[in-house]
Amino acid sequence: MWLEAEDKIYELSAEELEVLRRSAAERGQPAPAGTRHTKAQLVAAGLVREAFNRAELAEAGFTPGFASSKDAASESARQALAVGSPHPSKIEKWQLPVDMLPFRPVMISFPPGSRLARKMQPLVSEEESGGALRVVLSGSLVCNGVRFGPGDWFFVPNRTPYQLDSDPEEETRVLYLYRFPSCDRGGRFSYDAV
Q: By its UniProt entry, which InterPro entries does this protein fall under (predicted)?
């Protein structure tokens, strides 16, 4: 659920251009030229908006300092900081309004009986895999055949295939701490490895 308009233009950093190049290369496509691209062009190249950078957080009114789920502004993050997802459309994913480089804290809400088909994330670099630490807050998730309930956690390194199935009876809420390519340098985009 990447809420920005298809014609929104993004100025990509050098790190984000490298992510775009890698995504295109994995798909056997040429990388689009230039540093300015619309959301539609990025999606066509396989990119997904995974995060908001520091400047965008500030622009949206989220400033450094103490923050909690009890803050009035935090509830607006669910819409204002909604990030993209190759997941089924009913799954909601949003960045928490805090900056924790090199990780991005993301909340995800799975409706009952959601399935995330088998996938894997790209390596952060040749030296480091990156990955996502997931903590189940409510409901349950089955990852690669193992059920995780409230308080359980699991880490999936990038380039490791996984599949997720949510609780069939209730909404499942999960906190992700995610490290993807260029995240540590303020990158906003990732892609699914093929």
A: RmlC_Cupin_sf
